[in-house]
Structures are given as C-alpha cells and as structure tokens.
Amino acid sequence: MKYIYADHAATTAISEEAKLEMMDCMDRFYGNPSSLHRPGQEAAEMLAECRETVAGLMNADPREIYFTSGGSEADNQALLTAAKVGEKKGKRHLISTAFEHHAVLHTLKRLEQEGFAVTLLPVYDDGLVRPEDVTAAIREDTACVSVMYANNEIGTVQPVREIGEICREKGVLFHVDAVQAAGRLPIDVKDMKIDLLAVSAHKFNGPRGVGALYCRKGIRLVNLIEGGAQERGKRAGTENLPAIAGMATAFAAAWETHKESNEKTAAMRDRLIAGLEKIPHSKLNGDRQKRLPGIVNFCFEGIEGESLLLHLDARGIAASSGSACTSGSLDPSHVLLALGLPHEVAHGSLRLSIGEENTPEEMDYIVKSVTEVVSYLRDMSPVWEELETGKKPHLL
Amino acid sequence: MLYSEKVMDHFQNPRNVGKMEDADGVGEVGNAKCGDIMKMYIKVKDDIITDVKFNTFGCGSAIATSSMATEMIKGKSIDEALELSNKAVVEALDGLPTNKIHCSVLAEEAVKAAIEDYRSRQTAKEM
Q: What is the ipTM of this complex?
C-alpha cells in the first residue's frame, strides 16, 4: 500500500503545473525585475502578471498585493501595520481570537509588551467566533480586529463577512489570516470588507517560502524589511520570482477546480468522521458543518497523540496532533484548550487533513488503523484503566 | 529522524507491557494533565526482581523508556534496581531528544515508586 499523506494543513505537495511554471520562470526570467535592461524588464512584466493573477483571485487591485516570504510574514506585517495606523489616532486596543495561529498571537504578544491592550475573543466548544462578541468587544480605541478565515487545527470556518461588516461600520481595521482558506473558500476583499489579508502558497500546492499580503489602498504599510524599492518600497529584497510565479499558478489552479475538489474532499472527510466516531469515548472537535472540506480533528480519551502519530506513520499514514509532545511544550495545543477541552483530553488529539488526491479507500484504511492503534494504546494506558474501572469519570 | 532506532524498537515492540494481578509492588508516577503517566508492577523473590510489567500513557519516548527500564531491572536485586538512573536508560536507548529527557526521569521514578511500595508492604507484613 502506498504511503497516505493526510497532513495537508501542514503543507501540500507542489503541483506539477506550479513546478513546471517555476522551472520555466527560472530559465526565462532570470533578470532582476528592478533592472532597466531587457531581461530585467521581462522579469518585471512577469512579476506584474503574477500580481494581477493573485489580486484577481481576491478581487483586489494589483497595487494592493505585496509578496512576502509566506503567511507568517504577512500576518506579522499586517498586525504591526494596523497597530501603527491605530496608534497615530490614539487607538491602542487590538481584538483577535484565542485560537489564532501563533504568527498572529505572538505578534499580538509583542504589541502587548509595547503597551497595546489585546482582547482575545472566545471560540466556544464549536470553534466559532460570534459576530456579536466582536461588536461587544470593540471600544472607542480599538485599532484592529484580526480573525482567521479557517482554523488550521480544527478547520472551522469563521463568519468573516459578518465581522467585516461590523468592523467597517465601526471604523476598525479588519485583518484576516486566510492561510488555510485560500484556494478553497471564496475571498472577496471588497465584498467582505477586509483591510488586510494573509495567504501562503504552500497550503494550496504552491511552493513554500512565498506568500502574499493584501493591504487595502490608503493603509500605509509598516516595513519589516528595509533596503530597497521592491513591493512599492514596503518589502525590500530581490523578488523570488520563480516562487511567486509558482504561487500565482497554484492559486489560480486551486480556485479554478475548488468546487469539484471541495466536494470530493468533503465527501472523504465525512467518511472519515463517520468512521472515527464509532470509536468509543472519542469526540469530533469543532462544528460539524462550518468546516473546511479537508480537516478532521478528533480527541480520543485515555491515549496520547504522539504515540498515535508514530504508530500511524509506521502503518503508512501521515497525520498530526495537538498533544504537548508534538507542540514542543508541556501544554497541549492552545486551539484545543480554547475549545474548553481539559488538558488530559487535548493530549489525545489527532488531526487528519486530506486533499483531493486522497481516495475513499484510503479513508477506510485510516479509520481501520486509527481504531486499532487507539485500542492498542488504551490497552497499555493506566489512564484508560482508571476510566474503565470507574476510578475516574469519562470526560468524553 | 526524531528518535534513535532503539527508541523506535522499544516503542513499537515494548517489552514487559501489561498489568500484573499479583504484584509485590506497584508504582505510578506522572500526571495526565502533563501528558505522561507510568505505572510499574514488580514481582520480588528473595530480594530479586523476578518479573516486571508496565502500563504507560504518553508519547513515544515515554513508552520506550518504560520498556527499557523494565528490561534493565528484571533479574536484578532491589538495591541494584534502585541504582538505575535516568541517564543509564537514556544511554541504553542511544539517546533521547533534549525535550524528552523528562520521560527517562519518569521511568527512573516509576521504578523507585514500585520498590518503595514493595518495601512498605514488607514493613506492613513484619508489623
């Protein structure tokens, strides 16, 4: 049996067309887009084309697109910009959610150390932000609201359109981390009233090390990197044109096929959910309906996630977990804790993130393997023994 | 690779895994909140550990260190088993990643807890 890759939320394999585009770009557009000679100008034209493509995919103006090294850089720059813009008007309050990616949370932490006040909204046990909570949290001095389009660990899709309306009405900047959503869910920055938005190429079968930041016209970006006139002077460094071309190609291809792809993926996702729910004392994390087509996240009581991952890997399945041992700290994932899950339950989490190249048969094999491994690990778990003998109550 | 071949071997084919109904000493260390619990059972005859079993809730290295520790104390005297250090377990496994060293500490503590339980049972019997 071939190895099953079910970790698409971590990264995706590059598509054949993006790879070919990149190689072609390296051959043909070797010039520096800042140079005045012909090879340079040809590269500049190619760069402009890519910018148009990416802008078009979010209904933005090409002049509102800034290429970055990825989603993290784009999130950092967006938040530092929003904070700076607010500060000029005496607004030093930022709103976000408890289960954002660390690219957002750590930047907010840094701004907090610089004197900004930060409010993190709850996401409840279904992993969904409530627009009314956003309304209630906005103060006179709120500079920005930052909410992810879809969560990277549990896949829940947030009501960004409603939140955008609220923010625009209140005159507050709205930043969206769309890293997991791009290429799968519609992005219309005008209609959704988004001011800043981050995407990353390697989540939609593009290359890693490249992303884009949308920044609405009229918002003055704060530089993270100084040193040149690239990206309208807002992001110095010779443009990584092959990567940018790979991203534009992959983004366009993902969007072109997103309907069929989402449908196919969601059917496999639901097959996985149905199968895994049969495991006793398990729980699907996050709202059942409002979720990305490819992300499934479960907790299994009485076991620890890393052991589960290693056994699945040995059986030819790539997955991920939010256990402490995989998060690199003693605490399990902040996303699972934000859902209100107790530590001991959050340690036993499993994220399966699938793509359209997976097959329904693979889903059945995953369900069978997870069921067997969970049962094996429970048999050797003193925690499970206590739960089964009634010494401790089951939490799931 | 995160883990050495030895760690993976003990993780995938753990030695002495299971429960022991008639154990002479049982030790449990760690807590579920932090993600690691080890429970060790020992059978003792004439001051020699004749059998060991373990149950572990935890990551790959927690299972591997438990398994290795049971192998290292089986057939040893109580005093010899008490000398087992976490360092010796790590060395026997050809090393552990830095952030997993605490698992080996837990394994050492589990052995000591089981022996302590055995000794307190002995004292209780004598009294």
A: 0.95
